[in-house]
Amino acid sequence: MQRTNAILLGLGVGLFMVVSCDQSGNTEQQEQRVDELENFVDSVETAVNREANHNWTVLDRRYNQLVANVESSYQNASQDAREEWNDLEERYEEAKVEARTKTAKMEEDAERHMSNVEAWWESTTANTQRSGQRTLDDIEEGAKDSWEWLEKNTEKLGDNVRSRYEKIKADLEG
Predict the structure, then answer these.
(1) In Å, how far from its chain's centre is CA 113?
(2) What pLDDT does residue 140 have?
(3) Is the pTM of this model over 0.85?
(4) Best CA proximity match to 33, nearest among 1, 66, 57, 81
(5) For residue 32, how many C-alpha atoms fall within 13 Å in the half-sphere facing its CB?
(6) What is the rounded distance in angstroms from the CA atom of residue 68 to the CA atom of residue 33?
(7) What does the buried/exposed string (b/e) look like for 148-173 if buried means 16 or more CB atoms within 10 Å of the residue's CB?
(8) Do 133 and 174 touch, CB atoms closer than 8 A?
């Protein structure tokens, strides 16, 4: 009998804890859902810091799924409980804005460097009949910096700039 009472008392304490957690809007399920959303937002922020060009349709779909999971677990929660995850939405939107800004800057830089190389290429090929390799060795300093930048960022270039770069590179390599 004492053992049964101890088990019932233990169950009562556990039940009380679940009810009291639920009333505060901080259930284990809510915490897990918020943690999943936070991990996703952290991953997006990290990815944007490394490179801005991402498939935002796929990312938004996953983000919206995680938000829906959080919202459903917080359906009956108090406003205070909802504030635990509201800042994650702000962080995600800030990451998207940062990515767009970085992507635009990358495209601007790529166009500037490509234009510099193209201007040098047109000038060089119009004035000389030297071989491609020798011409590559003789790249002027300004064009050389642009060429090196394009070489370093080839994977990140947009299709237009990448194809222009690869055409000049193929011509140089003969």
Answers:
(1) 24
(2) 63
(3) no
(4) 66
(5) 6
(6) 10
(7) ebbeebeebbeeebbebbeebbeebe
(8) yes
Closest to 85 in 3D by CA, of 129, 55, 123, 41: 41
- Please tell me the total count of domains within the chain: 1
Q: Which residue has the tokens 């997006």?
A: 44
30 φ, ψ to 5°? Answer: -60, -45
Find tokens 């804890």 and name the residue: 17
Which domain range does residue 83 map to? 2-173
Rounded CA separation 165/47 (Å): 26
Determine how many CB atoms are found less than 10 A away from the CB of residue 100.
Answer: 13
Q: 23 pLDDT exceeds 60?
A: no
Burial (Cβ within 10 Å: 0-12, 13-18, ≥19) of residue 114: buried
Beta strands in 99-164 (DSSP E): none
d(CA 76, CA 106): 45
Q: Which residue has the higher pLDDT, 18 or 78?
A: 78
Classify burial at 98, counting beta carbons within 10 Å of its beta carbon; exposed 0-12, middle 13-18, buried 19 or more: middle
